[in-house]
Amino acid sequence: MRALLLVILGLAVGAMGATSALSALRQGTPFHDGVMAVMQHHMGVLQANVRAKQCDAKGSASHLARLRETAGDIREAFPDMEPAFAQADDGLLKALDRAVAATPGTCEALAVALKPVGDACQSCHQRFR
Ligand code: HEC
After folding, report:
1. Is the CB–ligand 1 distance for residue 64 below 6 Å?
2. What dotted CATH number matches 30-128?
3. Does the beta carbon of 40 sit less than 6 angstroms from any atom of ligand 1?
4. Fewer CB under 10 Å: which end of the chain, C or N?
């Protein structure tokens, strides 16, 4: 019984910690939400194009370039984050540099280029979101 209470207390404290970390982020400007929303938009369009099998090289290049540019703002949008956050950010930037350099001309190539990008988004979210 006592052990169970401690577990529940631990969960409650953990949840409180998580909420206060997030609200600390939210007390800043809406800038970081904007950066994420813009990246989500371009990622979403590219993924929808792959699903629709309509991946023209020019459109893909432009969405990838916008994604890369916006990702360059992550560090300014989340100031004072721990070094592991910057590493996660570097992972995304590298994946995007490669995707831009690959200039995917087919849906297959675009899907291959997007995979590490999506993984980089996800791996940071798992830790920090
Ligand atoms: C280096 C870490 C990191 C990377 C990389 C990252 N994100 Fe995020 N993202 C976050 C954090 C932290 C939040 C939570 C921010 C908050 O709740 O205020 C977030 C929130 C979001 C949200 C919700 C925004 C909102 O309004 O609350 C979306 C959508 C999103 N990210 C999309 C993406 C996409 C798409 C990528 C990859 C192209 C990506 N993120 C890469 C850290 C990251």
Report:
1. no
2. 1.20.120.10
3. yes
4. N
Which residue's alpha carbon is nearest to atom 28 within ligand 1? 36
SS3 34: helix
**pTM (whole model) above 0.70:** yes
Pocket of ligand 1 contains residue 46 by CB under 6 Å: no
The token duo for 38 is: 């813009």
Beta carbon of 33 within 6 Å of any ligand 1 atom: yes
pLDDT digits (tens, 9 = 90+) for 65-80: 999 999 999 999 999 9
d(CA 89, CA 93): 6
Closest CA to 67 of 105, 104, 100: 100
Which residue in this structure is represented by tokens 């994946």? 95
Q: Any idea of the CA torsion for 127, 113, 79, 18, to the nearest 10 degrees? A: -20
